[in-house]
Design goal:
345 residues, mainly alpha, 77% helix, globular
């Protein structure tokens, strides 16, 4: 039975608006629905405290979650297609580990070398973290791109990516051993992931970068559809397999690098959302899956951010804890549903 694709697309789009507004209304500080509406439209005379909470905290956090969720979901879809592996995710090639290693060098060595913990430097510390994460992730991505030119098989490249991740984690472990407790704590907090870390000028730059990268990834839809057919068939249709694989890996890697740099390593969204979209739309056509992954990823990220800031909690739960709790059941249910359908057929 063919799914009503337009209906589902409109439903997911509507859910984004709903969850975005709920992100503005709900939180540790209760702000009435009408007051939030007035603040957004600059009407009425609302409390300056409420205005600061909405404009300086909740709006940047919701926008960051929306854009990061969309980027990670598209990246995960690209990785699963190019490697033909349902367990491939945005971090499968060690790019997230590279970002973590870059941050580890800055955070864990700052106290040892300079005598001042990076966590005490405020905005400059956050800027240093972002630059270190981008440098680390892009360095690993450059290595992966170089290796992809030398090896033929996707499985070999996948294994090399996993090994790079292990090496990065080993280096991080050594740095932790020689670091002071305060720096280790700052690094662990960064590793938990957060949509609240991006604000002000950083948020504007992050969103502008993603608004360029995400549309560019849509140019690879035809390439991804050809890759689904298998290397031999795609080659007969005129596709340069090595070049196509390089483009997809580069696009996916840059998306992961930027999101990880600004938000920390966010797990499970990129893995779960493509499965959810395939189960929902019952198709492998990337002309449908790509926009669907963008919308579903944005909506699911907003849900995770909402759960992390549930009313009644002081502060926020780690985003990675929430994404794992939400993402794991999604993947399992989709896989069980697929198996049930295969058995019925």
């Amino acid at each position: 039975m063919k799914r009503p694709i337009t209906f589902y697309m409109l439903l997911v789009t509507a859910s984004i608006f709903l969850f975005f507004f709920l992100n503005l209304v709900l939180g540790s500080v209760a702000i009435p629905f009408r007051s939030v509406w007035n603040i957004l439209w600059h009407s009425g005379d609302e409390s300056i405290i409420w205005q600061n909470i909405i404009w300086k905290s909740r709006v940047p956090q919701a926008l960051t979650a929306l854009v990061a969720g969309a980027g990670l979901s598209i990246s995960g879809l690209q990785m699963q297609t190019v490697f033909r592996n349902p367990l491939a995710g945005p971090s499968v090639l060690g790019i997230s580990s590279g970002a973590s290693m870059g941050v580890a060098f800055v955070v864990l060595l700052s106290g040892s070398i300079g005598g001042v913990a990076l966590s005490k430097l405020g905005f400059m510390g956050e800027l240093a973290l972002t630059i270190a994460a981008i440098a680390g992730s892009l360095s690993v991505m450059a290595l992966i791109v170089f290796v992809s030119q030398k090896v033929r098989g996707n499985v070999t490249l996948l294994i090399i990516g996993v090994m790079i991740g292990y090496v990065a984690n080993a280096v991080i472990g050594v740095l932790k051993f020689f670091s002071v407790e305060e720096d280790i704590r700052a690094y662990v907090i960064w590793g938990l992931g957060s949509f609240a870390r991006v604000s002000g000028d950083q948020m504007t730059l992050f969103i502008c970068i993603m608004l360029v990268l995400i549309p560019l990834s849509f140019l690879l839809i035809k390439t991804l559809n050809l890759l689904l057919l298998g290397d031999a068939y795609a080659r007969n249709l005129g596709l340069n397999i090595k070049r196509a694989r390089l483009l997809v890996i580069t696009c996916s890697g840059v998306l992961v690098a930027i999101v990880t740099a600004y938000c920390g390593p966010i797990i499970f969204l990129g893995l779960a959302v493509p499965h959810l979209c395939r189960g929902l739309f019952r198709t492998s056509d990337h002309r449908i899956l790509m926009p669907a992954s963008l919308l579903v990823g944005a909506s699911l990220a907003l849900v995770c951010n909402l759960i992390a800031r549930m009313p009644g909690f002081e502060g926020a739960l780690p985003v990675n804890s929430v994404t794992a709790l939400v993402g794991a059941p999604v993947v399992v249910s989709v896989l069980f549903g697929k198996r049930r359908n295969d058995m019925n057929e």
